[in-house]
Amino acid sequence: MIEYHPYDLDIDGETDVNRRNIERIETATYGKEEIRFAVISDTQRWYDETEDAVEALNRRDDLDFVLHTGDMSDFGLKLEFEKQRDILSGLKVPFVCLLGNHDCLATGLDVFRKIFGTEDFAFTAGNVRFLCLNTNALEFDYSSAVPNIQFIREEGDHVPEGVEKTVVAMHAGPFSEQFNNNIAEYFQYYLREMPDLQFCVYGHGHNISVDEFFDDGIRYYECTCAKKRSYLFFTLNSNGYTYEVVNF
């Protein structure tokens, strides 16, 4: 009899999901001056609610893509990631997923990298650059560059042509227990070096909140967990941006 370990890395189904979906996002939004996206987060173990979120998002006809700010799994299990990926693949629009702290448990980081890709990445939608960052420093025992300031600096030094604005996404926000708060001010400094930083989005706390952590005009929008049945919806255009909490 063959037994399968819950932490094995033999992935069933699609891999490299973020790269594939980023290609779709960049192609579909090329040249657009208005970008509309939704944020969901912390869908771990709430599979029915995640399916309901997908159904709610699919009822929209004004959505370019969905951004998941992490914690798809509760225990880093391969089957958790696969189930979440399969549910999210029911979206009519492309989606990208960030790494959450629960996603790092056991072999979760390796599974995340196989199914979704690298934990620090960026893409362009219209004239907006989206930086998606790993901020789960506690899970890396502060032994790795989390957040990766070098990655942020390189993004700032090599801004793609046509980019006019920036949005930053992460799982754990500054001053949470996960964040490397020794470098929080340093982190914010380099984010502000990006073209016209609009705002930041994050999850982790299972709440809806809006904070200006650094008193510099840059707002951080927190998205709650799937259990609480709401998502964030943003529109960016030449007039600035709008923000909405949508219950489902």
Description:
Residues 35-206 form the Calcineurin-like phosphoesterase domain. There is one protein chain. Helix 2 (47-58) runs parallel beside helix 3. Helix 5 links the parallel strand 5 and strand 6 (165-170). The radius of gyration is 17 Å and the shape is globular. The chain is built from six helices and eleven strands. It has 248 residues and is of the alpha/beta class.
The number of domains is: 1
Q: What coarse outline follows from CA principal-axis ratios?
A: globular
How is the CATH topology named?
Purple Acid Phosphatase, chain A, domain 2
Helix content: 25-40%
CATH class division:
Alpha Beta
Spell out the blueprint of helices and strands.
Layout: H1 17-29, E1 35-40, H2 47-58, E2 65-68, H3 78-88, E3 95-97, H4 108-115, E4 121-125, E5 128-133, H5 149-157, E6 165-170, H6 184-192, E7 197-202, E8 209-211, E9 219-222, E10 230-237, E11 240-247
Can you give keywords for this protein?
alpha/beta; 248 residues; Purple Acid Phosphatase, chain A, domain 2; single chain; globular; 6-stranded mixed beta sheet
Summarize the structure.
The protein is an alpha/beta fold and 248 residues long. It is built from six helices and eleven strands.
